[in-house]
Design brief:
The chain is 26% helix and 19% strand. By secondary structure, it is α/β, with parallel strands linked by helices. The strands form 2 sheets. The chain has a 6-stranded mixed sheet, with helices on one face. A two-stranded antiparallel sheet has the order 1-7.
Length: 245
């Protein structure tokens, strides 16, 4: 019996040492600090009201069923973060439509000429407010004709949905740190299909600011160029405003 008792005591001692021993964590697994302009986007664009239900449509004359699947993926990836990003804005994809939707909470996606070599934008979002504040009532997203690859379309739509939750472009951000970085071309996917951890942190900050104050603004705002300046958090009313004809 003694050898068995000694073995049992020895195992218990080893187990207790393991419990109190320091745990070593690989530094590569540690989360990257969310620094605006480096690993996280600034914020300041208009937002959907907190707790909104946004219905997403594709104009049938511009897109196919395969495109629909790509857009649905981006919307679902944002939708699952609604609780943790502080907005509680839910996105649901409603497929193809023949007309542009302008009811409260509608987002319609169409095709158009957007891209230029200087800005490298492949899409733009037009936010509309019925009460001239910075809360979006309905929105139009214009995707450039160059975006034909479904994976690129998913990344582009993830980017535009980020705009609708207050995020701005981050052209200088580290690769894969944010969905708000710009793609190099309309044919190369960047591997980002939804919000990153730092995107969620910045959406939370945008909605905390919204809860404190909703600012007055024109009825329509179109965002299609970067307003990032040295990683600072720009004020919402400093966002470039372009009136559509």
């Amino acid at each position: 019996m003694r050898p068995k008792l000694f073995t049992l005591i020895f195992l218990l001692v080893i187990a207790s040492l393991n419990l109190i021993a320091p745990v070593r964590i690989n530094s590569a697994t540690q989360p990257t600090p969310c620094i605006a302009g480096r690993t996280a986007p600034p914020f300041g664009f208009w937002t959907w009201p907190a707790n909104s239900h946004v219905k997403i449509y594709l104009r049938a004359s511009d897109f196919s069923e395969s495109d629909a699947a790509a857009v649905k993926l981006a919307s679902e990836n944002w939708d699952v973060t609604a609780g943790e990003n502080g907005s509680n804005v839910r996105f649901s994809f409603h497929g193809l439509t023949r007309e542009t939707k302008t009811a409260k909470g509608d987002m319609t996606i169409i095709r158009g000429e957007v891209y230029d070599k200087k800005s490298r934008h492949l899409a733009l979002i037009e936010a509309n407010s019925l009460t001239t504040d910075q809360l979006i009532d309905y929105a139009l997203v214009i995707i450039d004709f160059r975006v034909k690859n479904p994976e690129v379309l998913t990344s582009v739509m993830s980017h535009e949905l980020g705009h609708s939750l207050g995020l701005l472009d981050c052209p200088q951000c580290e690769q894969k740190s944010t969905t708000m970085a710009l793609l190099k071309t309309g044919t190369e996917p960047n591997g980002i299909k939804g919000p990153t951890a730092c995107d969620k942190v910045k959406v939370l900050a945008a909605y905390q600011e919204q809860a404190l104050q909703v600012k007055r603004a024109p009825k329509t705002l179109t965002l299609n160029e970067s307003v990032l300046d040295s990683g600072e958090e720009p004020e919402a009313d400093e966002t470039p405003i372009v009136q559509r004809p």
